[in-house]
Design goal:
single chain, 409 residues, alpha/beta, Alkaline Phosphatase, subunit A, eight-stranded mixed β-sheet, six-stranded mixed β-sheet, globular, binds 1-O-phosphono-alpha-D-ribofuranose, binds manganese (II) ion, cytoplasm, EC 5.4.2.7, phosphopentomutase activity, isomerase
Length: 409
């Protein structure tokens, strides 16, 4: 029997999406632009990082080769030790649930509900019902916003009035920021549950609790107690199919929230990428034959992509890459480790939102052959390859590339 480990570097796109122009993202390339900025000395922050982007372990697996495939650039020198390809998203949303559900074999074929970039952004019916049912004195913001800025702007008024800060973005989200102590963390979660119920008829992908601490704009800070209230996937995902066969699915980081806690046998959350890496390694040690470890590393997106912090993103990639050998050292016969992403969030791009990009598919395992997988037509090929590797029936979407990885294929 086999085991499979899939690590999602949240927002680590590699450019080249054929439909990027439709999103205003033509040319967006998270990896390519970070690498170029580093090479040009524009991501030198003494004490944090300096010099060219240093990702020796992901490059060895084939990251730069995958990026060349995605963008049509010339392949770099060297022969990767892993299998590598680039995957194109077929779901229309460039958001986290769309990306992850498609990776797990379920492309999103319906349209999410979005809110217009107007003030107010939320329909009056929704806002009125939220205020009434959650018994809050009103709401603040009610617009498109970036999470850190909106807390700086409305945080003090929120503490004074008890009105939660409600905002959205180009994603299908309702985000609610509230102070962990003045408003209360549990109360914020309860408020989000009311918002979740009211958001269902609007087809909104996620309601997100964004707790923060601090007393003034100078020291307001979001805490790791963020919680996503996602709508459940409309069909069985790889996770449901695996647990339905009695396999264990270990969800690390945000994975549990993204799948509305369906198809998950074992949940591990952690406050940051390095702690999530520890949690992923622990799950790898515990996984038995036929089991699946699915981990999301969210700091890339939340702390650096949306914040358009190139040096921070580069440093986070370098820290992740430096730990990859620990995961590789855990691999035993029958194992497959893959790295991918759910969308882009190019820190050199305009605005603060995600960017439409292809994602890398790189991986390895004892006995799996190295070499190119080409451009995969859907992220679903990743989940289908996991299904194939773990020996369960194919799903309805995507094409497995697992056979290409057999030495005897
Ligand atoms: O600016 P913050 O609050 O981090 O918001 C970001 O986080 C949300 C969820 O990933 C996205 O929709 C994006 O708007
Ligand atoms: Mn994401
Ligand atoms: Mn994001």
């Amino acid at each position: 029997m086999a085991r499979a480990f899939l690590f999602v570097l949240d927002s680590f796109g590699i450019g080249g999406a054929p439909d990027a122009a439709a999103y205003g993202d033509d040319g967006a390339d998270t990896y390519g632009h970070i690498e170029a900025a580093c090479a040009a000395g524009k991501a030198d922050v003494p004490g944090l990082r300096e010099g060219p982007l240093h990702l020796p372990n992901m490059r060895a697996l084939g990251l730069a080769h995958a990026a060349a495939l995605a963008t049509g650039r010339d392949a770099p020198e060297g022969t990767p030790t892993g299998f590598y390809g680039a995957a194109t998203e077929t779901s229309s949303g460039k958001d986290t649930p769309s990306g992850h559900w498609e990776i797990a074999g379920l492309p999103v074929s319906f349209d999410w509900g979005y809110f217009p970039d107007t003030k107010p952004a939320f329909p009056a019916d929704f806002t009125d019902a939220l205020i009434r049912e959650a018994k809050v004195p009103g709401i603040l913001a009610n617009c498109h916003a970036s999470g850190v800025g909106v807390i700086e702007e409305f945080g003090e008024e929120h503490i004074r009035t008890g009105k939660p800060i409600c905002y959205t973005s180009v994603d299908s989200v309702i985000q609610i920021a509230a102070h962990e102590e003045h408003f209360g963390l549990e109360r914020l979660y309860e408020l989000c549950k009311v918002a979740r119920k009211l958001a269902d008829p609007l087809n909104v992908g996620r309601v997100i609790a964004r707790p923060f601490v601090g007393e003034s704009p100078a020291d307001f800070q979001r805490t790791p107690n963020r919680k996503d209230f996602a709508t459940p996937p409309p069909e069985a995902t790889l996770l449901d199919r695996l647990t339905g066969e009695g396999r264990k699915v270990f969800a690390v980081g945000k994975i549990g929230d993204i799948f509305a806690h369906r198809g998950i046998s074992n949940l591990r959350k952690a406050p940051d990428n390095m702690a999530m890496f520890d949690a992923a390694l622990a799950a790898m040690r515990e996984a038995g034959d036929g089991d699946f470890v699915f981990a999301n590393f969210v700091d890339f997106d939340t702390n650096f992509g949306h914040r358009r912090d190139v040096a921070g993103y580069a440093a986070a990639l370098e820290a992740f890459d430096a730990r990859l050998p620990e995961a590789l050292a855990q691999l035993r016969d029958g194992d497959m480790l893959m790295l991918t992403a759910d969308h882009g969030c190019d820190p050199t791009w305009k605005g603060t939102d995600h960017t439409r990009e292809r994602v890398p598919v790189i991986g390895t395992g004892p006995g799996l052959s190295a070499g190119p997988l080409g451009i995969r037509a859907s992220f679903a090929d990743i989940g289908e390859s996991v299904a194939h590797h773990l020996g369960i029936e194919p799903g309805r979407h995507g094409t497995s590339f697992r056979k290409q990885l057999s030495a005897d294929a």
